[in-house]
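Sample log: HTH luxR-type domain-containing protein.
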Amino acid sequence: MAHPAAPTPAAPRSSAPSRLAALRCLGALILLEASGAIINATIYASMADFFAIGREIATLANAGAFVLLAVVALRRPVLLNARVLTAGASIAITAGVICLGVGIVANNSLLTLAGLLCRAAASIWLTGMFTIALSTLPTSRSVLLVAGGGAILSSAGCALIPIGWPTEAACAILALCILASLALVWRLAEPSLASIRQSGASALQDLKGFAPFAPLLLCVFLIATASGYAIAFNQQNNAPLVTLASDVIVAVAFAMVVIDKSQKSEDRLFSLSVLLVVAGYLVAPYEIASAEGTTNSLLGAGRDCFYLLLWILLAFTGRRNLFMLLPMVGFVRAASSLGTDAGAMVGHATNQLTASNPQMAAVFASIMVFCFVAFLWLGFRHFSFTEAVSEVRLVTPPEIEQIGSHIDGACRLLGKQHGLTPRETEILILLARGRDGKFIAEKYVLSYQTVKTHIKHLYAKLGVHSRQELINLTDQTIASAAGQRRTE
């Protein structure tokens, strides 16, 4: 499988740490997917009788939270503190499973919703961390093996999750999956997150780099619609039909990708996922009120093939331009959540019509396949995933360092212009690079209160009132200096 060029690592990595990093990413992906399967097969099924709309509300909240992640990564990357947010995610999932367990047992909608929202917050941060960790793997092959192996193993494992688990057991395992995934990836992602915090605001001044990926959001929405339809269609005991047939299809697709050495292997994988989804929709009218699961298997296989492609694309986007990665993850996963909600609603409507009007239920499936094919035909005849990734501007480690040096230079210039002391200028540089007061106190062996006093004084001299205003002032100084260099 051919891949776009990625930046060369600054220093060679030994094979043992690289293999360990790949294994940690593989384990995290399997656990992340397992947590989603537990939610669909057990948690949602347990709450269907008293709070069926909760799954749609939670999925919409997922979309909003992913958009928030993208906006923060674009506009306020200084807030992306790996340790703080990972600790927050750990607290959120712990509180979430407690609320879910108590809420479902007591048939309490508010507690259940609170649990779903806490779980969503933890999963969103985990997804961002995992994608960053995946992009740090040193070779294209390791990224492919993790994404493909994780898709196959997680899908096979999810098929073995029993329906009707006790709620308490499902909640406990859900928490363990997310906590273990966070533990596996956060140290891998932390250095990259530090670079994003320090230089992301300056590196993403120009949003034109996202233009090649605009059609991707529509595509993700359409595939996720098929996924949501498969989850809801012909549900048994309020849980989705799951078969191992889709795993076999995904395994064959993965083998084809590994063998394929052409420049268009990503586009071929996309074509396969589209064909599987179309086949699933075409079979659906013949499986109304059936438990055979052919429709679910085909749609699920199409979804898994596409998500395999998506993980690969996101990882290689991050390898070319680290600063684009989290915004891409946020917007792509938001589109996925919205599509899943839309497809699930159509699937539930189909199930309800099955008893009273099976012909109308078949019409629903026909409409889905028509819309899917029509949108893809109109929007993706000339779109290439391989070319989209290749168009991402390559940001190399020296450029990242150069961005950091621009921040330092701007801070020193501001220090001279506004009469900052040498210590205040040093603290300004660290604040502009995303460091907090505790880090500064440890670096310069000062008390935290002394650092707060320095920050208060430099804020007053610069005429700013918040960290964001300080960063904006630094960015303006960098842009002004760049403009002066161009005119000289």
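Observation: The radius of gyration is 24 Å.
Observation: The first helix runs from residue 15 to 51.
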